[in-house]
Amino acid sequence: MGQMKSWNFLSILFRILFGLWCIFVVIWPVNGLRPLRQRPRSWGDEWLPLGKDEHELGPFSSWNITGTYRGNWKFLDSTNSSSKFPDFRKSNGNSILELVSTPTKITGVHYVQGVIIFHDVFDNEHDVRGAQIRVEGVYIWPFRQLRMVANSGKDGEFGQEDDYLLSNPYHLLGVFSSQVFQESPREKIWKRKHSPIYEMEKHCNIEIAAQISRVSSRQNDGDQDKYYLEGLMESPSVDDDVDCFSPMLLNATSVNTEVYYNKAVNYTLMVTFISFLEVLLLIRQMEHSNTQSGAAKVSLLMIGHQAIMDAYLCLLHLTAGILVESLFNAFATAAFFKFVVFSIFEMRYLLAIWKANRPMNNGENWEAMRRELSVLYSRFYGILLGGIVVMYEFHKFLRFILLLLHSFWIPQIIINVVRDSRKPLHPHYILGMTVTRIAIPLYVFGCPHNFMRIEPDRNWCICLALFTGLQASILLLQHYFGSRCFIPRQILPEKYSYYRRFHQGSNHATDCVICMTAIDLCQRSNDCMVTPCDHFFHSGCLQRWMDIKMECPTCRRALPPA
């Protein structure tokens, strides 16, 4: 009996151990295979040694190639042998790629959309500087292979690449500079419609095969890691076996948009600093001509001209801030300071000059003065809007128009010569305004690494600097040597001399009513000045008086210019 119980106990223990062994041998492998149904693995997972960390950048990690690429293109043959498109006469040029990569359900494959812009493709006869092609394809990141074809989507259809372009500061700043400084939208639309690229899309299959590699920060001067794209673009014909054009070699390097973002921010800081300097210079000039006669010497056209320039800069920076949303705060700050310069300080100074040049009548009606003031404002804003229309219509001559805009010192030079004005502008104002006015155009058209990607024009910058410098030099000569110092005396009109000869007694003396001291007429004639009404004053006293009022201190008669 005892043996039967022990045998039963052993059999039960054996069954339990056998059941646990079955569970360990049979159930455990099944659990190891269940993730195949829960997470389907693609062909890439069969051999791809993924790291433990998904974000680990190992030799087989996926790279996000979304971004902007800038590089060059060139034909493999020295001359293009295309019979379909003989307009491809250029053998090389610049290119810009905008790519957007999105993961797919297939591991190891990313869907890619984008735009390729080829510069300097066609000859000058078509007046088309570049061609733009929409592309789409796949990026097989385990092999670092990029395969793309021309996108046959219709114009007006927006995809993910358009959303990326609308948020990319690099692309938006390029569009802004192209619209404002390079070509008008109307010319751009005309060029696109007449571009041979449309015929190419109809009769050619554009295929691009490229290899992606990464350039470490050590090889690009400590900058962030960049991606390098190099491949071949072919165009087999749809109708026959002849290629549309010879194979084209493409190479491009990713652009760090943060660099252009920082450049744009630094530019707005420069504009803000320039605006602050202009405010200080305007205050200095307003203190220099704080009297009625001093303000009357300043040209109304000169101040109005500078106010219109600042208004244009205010609108330009505000438009750039609205277009590039990520840079709105920076550009809006620059636009605000320009608005303060022209709307508060320059317009106030403009009204002071207008009031000083306007004859005062005791019985004048307030309505008449308000009408004249409304005419002044209407002319100012009319010229402001008319200038915008002129620059839009004559966009091809924009650089010549900008050169004319910087002729703001010419009205003051002419006024000085006509009125023979004496020291109307402070030298600090002349030099400071000359430098601050040309700083922005010299950066845009002279800096080879400006954020708007405009090709520098050295000759135009030299002409601008010489033109404004010549105007400032003439004003300084007028300030120190007289308003008509560069005009021959033979052609100058006769003017009254305050140091004219006069009949004097042996011991005759009179008093200066300005300083209330005696004037010794026996001394040199340069020590005293005589007005047309035969009143005598010290030279320094009368000159300081005429800086305030152009009337005789004794009889209040109007005085001619000294």
Provide a compact summary of the structure.
The protein is of the alpha+beta class and 562 residues long. It has 16 helices and twelve strands. Strands 1-2-3-4-5-6-7-8 form an eight-stranded antiparallel barrel. Strands 9-10 form a two-stranded antiparallel sheet.
Question: What does this entry look like structurally?
Answer:
The protein is an alpha+beta fold and 562 residues long. It has three domains: 67-153 and 167-175 and 195-255, Beta Barrel (Lipocalin), CATH 2.40.128; 259-481, no CATH class; 494-561, Herpes Virus-1 (2-Layer Sandwich), CATH 3.30.40. 47% of the residues lie in helices and 16% in strands. The protein contains 16 helices and twelve strands. The chain has helices at 2-33, 35-38, 160-165, 169-182, 185-193, 197-203, 257-288, 292-296, 300-323, 328-357, 366-393, 398-405, 410-419, 427-446, 458-481, 539-548; strands spanning 67-75, 92-103, 109-119, 130-140, 145-150, 207-215, 226-234, 248-254, 509-512, 517-520, 528-530, 536-538. An eight-stranded antiparallel beta barrel has the order 1-2-3-4-5-6-7-8. A two-stranded antiparallel ribbon has the order 9-10. The protein has a two-stranded antiparallel sheet with strand order 11-12. Helix 7 (257-288) packs antiparallel against helix 14 (427-446) and helix 9 (300-323) runs antiparallel to helix 10 (328-357). It is elongated, with a radius of gyration of 39 Å. Keywords: Ligase, Membrane, Metal-binding, Signal, Transferase, Transmembrane, Transmembrane helix, Ubl conjugation pathway, Zinc, Zinc-finger. The chain crosses the membrane at residues 12-30, 264-283, 303-324, 330-354, 375-394, 460-481. It is a multi-pass membrane protein.
